[in-house]
Design brief:
With 229 residues, the protein is mainly alpha-helical. 85% of the residues lie in helices and 0% in strands. The protein is globular, with a radius of gyration of 20 Å. The chain has 11 helices and no strands. The chain starts with a helix and ends with a helix. Helix 1 packs antiparallel against helix 9, helix 4 runs antiparallel to helix 11 and helix 9 packs antiparallel against helix 10. About 7% of the residues have low confidence.
Length: 229
């Protein structure tokens, strides 16, 4: 296993995911739903996304020359670094993204709460009566689990952390990138679920963005100065 690929993937994932929309989503969902379902749903979505991204990055050198994938990866690191620094310097409030995610989820819950009370009461009674008989697999395929999975998966699709993972996998050992990415996702998601809103509200999006930008720039410089095998 390539240690540089593992450490790069781990560090990149942590600085990209802390303070990200999916981080706040996991924190807010965990306040209102069973933590184990939220954690398993969010984490599974992030693991699947990481594996898919690494698979794309691993296949890229087979479609494009190794030299070109290396140069593209270098440009991605510099581009995401400048993007993150720009976001950090123009960031005015530390809780803007948290409030945005919370309002969106609140709107969804209000929509669900507008259902007739009789129907809602019947659903609750029916759910309670079936809870004891429900198999373990069915519990983890509950609406809460599926909601956490879908929101996280589609929230990460096209995100800069996904694109950076693709670029990193094209230039480093894919297995190491997968392990580093999954460990980073597990750390961030677990912290979000356990810490909840109290932790999320204390995170400075400005500092996170600036730290991520500096890290991406460092990776870009390292990639620029390294030789293509």
């Amino acid at each position: 296993m390539s240690l540089p690929g593992f450490t790069k993937s781990l560090a990149m994932t942590v600085v990209s995911e802390i303070g990200d929309k999916t981080f706040f989503t996991a924190a807010i969902l965990a306040m209102r739903h069973p933590r184990r379902l939220v954690l398993s749903g969010c984490l599974l979505a992030l693991i699947v996304m990481t594996i898919l991204s690494v698979a794309v990055g691993w296949a890229a050198p087979n479609l494009i020359s190794r030299k070109w994938t290396h140069h593209i990866t270098t440009l991605l690191f510099f581009g995401f670094g400048l993007w993150s620094l720009w976001d950090g310097f123009r960031e005015e409030g530390d809780a803007e993204e948290l409030d945005e995610v919370e309002k969106k989820l609140d709107a969804d819950w209000k929509g669900d709460s507008n259902a007739p009370k009789d129907i809602t009461k019947c659903r609750l009674i029916d759910d309670d009566s079936k809870k004891e008989r429900r198999p373990l697999v069915t519990k983890f395929l509950s609406p809460i689990f599926l909601k956490a999975f879908s929101i996280t998966f589609f929230g990460e699709w096209g995100d800069k952390s996904q694109l950076a993972t693709i670029g990193l996998a094209a230039d480093e050992n894919p297995f190491a990138v997968v392990l580093g990415g999954i460990l980073g996702q597990a750390l961030c998601t677990t912290a979000a679920v356990i810490g909840g809103r109290s932790l999320a509200s204390q995170i400075s999006e400005k500092i996170v963005a600036l730290s991520g930008g500096i890290l991406f720039i460092i990776f870009g410089l390292q990639s620029f100065l390294s030789n293509v095998d």
